[in-house]
């Protein structure tokens, strides 16, 4: 409820959350893993990353990957280890609660911004209650497969997944730290 209090343009409150559990979750994860291992590609509902990726952003992406794989002890040339870690996305990182986040087709950029505020509100509210979350952008790679498993109409855009549960502070993956841009890189004062 606290997340839905996030501001949105004209109070449209875009986006929906679907919790998947039990046999539905097991079947969805198994099918996602099968499709990913088979190299099956789907047309995504939206572009998650800019195309082409500017070099400044690519450097941040690479640094984040290095931080993650360094924290869990997976070497750059360890393809099996990297694949095993990436595959965890499709199991919602084994969190007890698995959510899929959708947006009705045609909302435009403002809908994504408003939904992002709702997502962040949910993540902050969870943290305030001692829980941890992880947004899962990889889910956007299989929109048709996910819609089929969840019984969603074609106008439902698959935005991301979200894992929710209690963090293990001693787990190496939770030791990952990424650098943030310096204030001067994204904030200007004029006048």
TrEMBL record:
The answer to whether keyword Methyltransferase applies is: no
What Gene Ontology molecular-function terms does this entry list? Answer: oxidoreductase activity
State the source organism's domain of life: Bacteria
Looking up Pfam families in the UniProt record yields:
Nitroreductase
Q: Which residue numbers delimit the Nitroreductase domain? A: 2-166
Does the entry feature the keyword Flavoprotein, yes or no?
A: yes
Keywords, A to Z, come to: Flavoprotein, FMN, Oxidoreductase
**Which cofactors must be present for this protein to function?**
FMN
Instruction: Please name the PANTHER family in this protein's record.
Output: NAD(P)H NITROREDUCTASE YDGI-RELATED, NITROREDUCTASE
The family note in this entry says: Belongs to the nitroreductase family.
Protein name, please?
Answer: Nitroreductase
